[in-house]
Structure formats: C-alpha cells, structure tokens
Amino acid sequence: MDGIQLVNVFNIWSGSTNVTPLLGAFLSDTYLGRFRTLICGSTASFLGMVVMSLIAGIPNLRPLHCTGGSNCQKPEFWQLGVLYLGLGLLAIGAGGVRPCNIAFGADQFDTRTEKGRAQLESFFNWWYFSFTVSLVIALTVVVYVQTNVSWVIGYGIPAACLFFSIVIFLIGKHTYIITKPQGSVFVDMAKVIVAACKKRALSLESTPENSFYDPPCIESDQQVTKLAHTNMFKFFDKAALIADPSELDDKGLPKNSWRLCSVQQVEQLKLVVGLVPVWITGIGCFITMDQMNTFGLMQAIQSNNKIHNFKIPPGWMGLSSMICLSTWIFVYEQIYLPYAKKRSKKNVRLTMRQRINTGIVMAILCMVVAGIVEKNRREKALKQGSLLSPQSILLLLPQFSLSGLNEGFAAVAVMEYYTNHLPESMRTLAGAIFFLSFSASSYLNTAIVNVVHQVTAKLGKTPWLGGRDLNKVKLDNFYYLIAGLALLNLLYFNLFSCRYLVKNADKTPGSRHEDKGLEMNENV
C-alpha cells in the first residue's frame, strides 16, 4: 500500500477498534455481563490473530514482495478481503475487551472500605503499567522475530499468548467478583432525550422539587449510588417533570417510560454530557500519538538503522514510548508519591489538570521535534540521492519518547477521570467512552491527512503527504500543523474544558457521588 492508503486503513481500523467498545458496553450491561463479554471479545481477538497468521504463512493470501524499494504489486481485491476479515475480528474482539477490562478489574475492589479505596487509587496507573510492559515485550521480542526470523512465528506468538491468557482467565472464574447485567444506560439516556424533547415547551421556572419523579434507587448485587439533582443542563430536567398526575399509574410508576423518566436517569445523562468537553481535549492529545504510529514508523523505515553490525527493527521505535510511559508511572507511584507523602503527610498526587496540561505540552514538543528531525533526515537523503537517509534511526528516539510521556500524563489522567466521574453502575460506559476518544482521534486524523494531501498536491509545489517515499514530500510541515492544533487544544483545555473537571479528583467513585452535582455545578 502507498503512504496515504496505509495511513487510511490503519486509522480506520484503529478507529473501529475503539468504536466497537460502545456496542460491547451495551451488550455487557444489558445481556452478557462483563465476564462473558470479556470471554467473547478475547475469543474474537484470538480468531483475528489466527487469520493474520494464515496471511503471513500462505503466500497466495498476499501480494508478491516489493522489488526495487518502492516498486510494489497491488493486492488483489479478495486478498484485501481476507486482511479486512482478520482486522475486523480484532476490532470485534476489542469491542468486548476494552470496555470491560478496566471495569471488571475495578469491580474486584470494595470502595466501601478504606483498603479498597486505597487499592483502587493506584489501580489505574498499574493497569496502564502492565498494559505497557506487555507492549514492550511485543515491540522487542515479537517485532524482532517478525523482522528477522518469520512473520508466521511473529504472529503465532501473540496468538498463542492470547489463547493461554483466555485459559488462565477461565481458571480464575470462581475467584472473581462477577456482577450481573443491570440494564443498559444507553437506553435510559435515549429515553431522557426523547422525553425532554416531548416536553420542550414546558417551563421549569418556579418548579418545586417535588414536581420531579424521583423514586429511591433499588439496591442490587451491584452498588447503586443515588445521584442528587443538579441545576446543570437544565433542559434534560424536563424529562423528569411530572406535567400531569396521569403520567403515573396506581403504583406510582411511569405509564410511559419514554415520556417520564426518573431524576436518576436524568442525572446519569448529565454526567455523560459533562464528559464531552474533557473528551474533546483527549482527542486532541491522542492525534499526536497517531502520528508516531504511522508516519513516525515510516520515518524509521527510511532512516539508517544499522548500529555497528546490528540492524534495529523500525518497529522498535515505539518501544521508547512505552519505556518512557512505564518509567514515569513507576517513578511516580513508587518513588515520588511515597517520598512526598512521607515529607508532607498529605495527599500530594498531581491533579488531573496538571497531568493533562503536561501531556498536551509533551504533544506539542513531540511534533516540533519530529518536524525538525524529519527535515534533516529528508535533506540528507536527497543530498545522497538514496531512498534511505544516512541519518541514524536513533535520532527519532526523542519524538517517540515525548509521545510516550504525552500518553503517560494525559491518557492515564483522562482514563481516571472517566472512571471516577461516573458511578459504579456506569463503569463499563466509562471504558467505552475512553476508547471512543481514541477512535475519534483516528477518524479525525484520517480526515486531516486526506485534506492536507489533496490541498497541498493542488498547489503545484511539493506536497506534504503522499506516495511511498517520504523524501518526495514535506512531512515536517504536516508535523508543524499538528503542533499548532495541539497548541489550540492547550488553550481550549485551560480556557474552557478544565472547568468540567471535578475539584476533588482524588476521591473514589463510591465516596463522592453524593456531592458531585454541587461540585460540578459550581465548576460550570
């Protein structure tokens, strides 16, 4: 595939793997539960890896090898179909795993106890740490095998690991805290929107509190936290307004749940709507990471990867991002926090605003450094008149490291905010929304790439993007454009979306939802 096509396919597939979690969250909350959804998702991912291994092992399932550097045979339509089947199964698997993985882990902690709250406080960082360590192993051992030994073995290793992880997960079934599905919050949110629209002509001025339908929550196996009525996004309050006593039956229940909703349902929707400003900020952070996953690797491919007699696989560049991310989390949790708490005797964690701001700054620096390095790489390649630049691949390490720090600060903080912002019953949705931001960044990045390619190609000068050879385009200008968008994201976050962050961000979900409404209303 040429540069634009491979970026489009990667971004669309990456976006799809982050959209399917919404469907997975719906099925988990309504029918399957988190444990069964995790099993189904893991199985689909395993089948997807099997298909990818078959493509690598059967020559007829892929085009012939490229000759002359950039002279490549185009794949047949049916060959792309097999590839898309494997990628599709992986996307379906992600839809089952991603929304439930964090939520199922958080279910194992009892936030009603001090010990449970303390364990949950570090759970998010350690989850990302273990996730990153596994990626480090994949980017070293697996990528080396794929590049220097065999693509079949390289795909077979993660497929085998996934199979054994499914077996181990099933063995531990009787040790888990498994909650039953409580019904989908998606349906409740749809009901609130429909009911509010039906009653849009009603006025809320001088409406007494007892005019709202606000029954007590029914306690079940899963802890349900009663949400207090707030004054933000007041339009949705109309959904819970009892306009006529006839809307209730003899038992005091709504005759039509699509016309009259409870205050609890309304407040759940308000919490999700309140996520949107920070969600947009997260998208801006993740766009930078997308560049390193595509164009950053293309830079590595066209750089000098020889260090003495050893060739560094281009895929290893992502390793520096993972190392920086995991190193920061380890230093923060195991060195900085214990030392700071010992000295101050207080909670000295960095606030979410501080972490997100730091992550955005790292994103800006990442793009600026990447642009400078790319311009130097291209000039040296053109001066030498070769596809590969004599510039060392090691000069790409700073931009990949900054991308990892962007993820370590911003992504972890955003994930923690989503999970802590929503009550326990909506944790699956929190996971889905987190990965949906990755999806939106991938799709937005695809649109930006195609627009920039078409616009710069029509200007008659050297295009910024396109083709298989980075030496024929000006990728550095594109990096500066993304840096400018990151700067706008920094201004947007500090001037607007940071006001939606909950003040007491260090509290746990089970201990703060009663006063959340007042806190968020005050922020707004």
From TrEMBL:
Against Pfam families, the record matches this protein to: PTR2
Full protein name: Nitrate transporter
- Give the main localization category: membrane
Per the record's keyword annotation, is Endoplasmic reticulum included, yes or no? no
Q: Name one GO molecular function term.
A: transmembrane transporter activity
How is this protein annotated for GO cellular component? Answer: membrane
The reply to whether Chaperone figures as a keyword in the UniProt entry is: no
Question: Cross-referenced InterPro entries, in alphabetical order?
Answer: MFS_trans_sf (IPR036259), POT_fam (IPR000109)
Q: Which family does it belong to?
A: Belongs to the major facilitator superfamily. Proton-dependent oligopeptide transporter (POT/PTR) (TC 2.A.17) family.
What membrane topology term does the record carry? Multi-pass membrane protein
Localized where? Membrane
Transmembrane stretches, start-end: 6-26, 38-58, 78-104, 125-145, 151-172, 269-289, 316-335, 356-373, 393-417, 429-452, 478-502
User: What keywords appear on the UniProt entry?
Assistant: Membrane, Transmembrane, Transmembrane helix
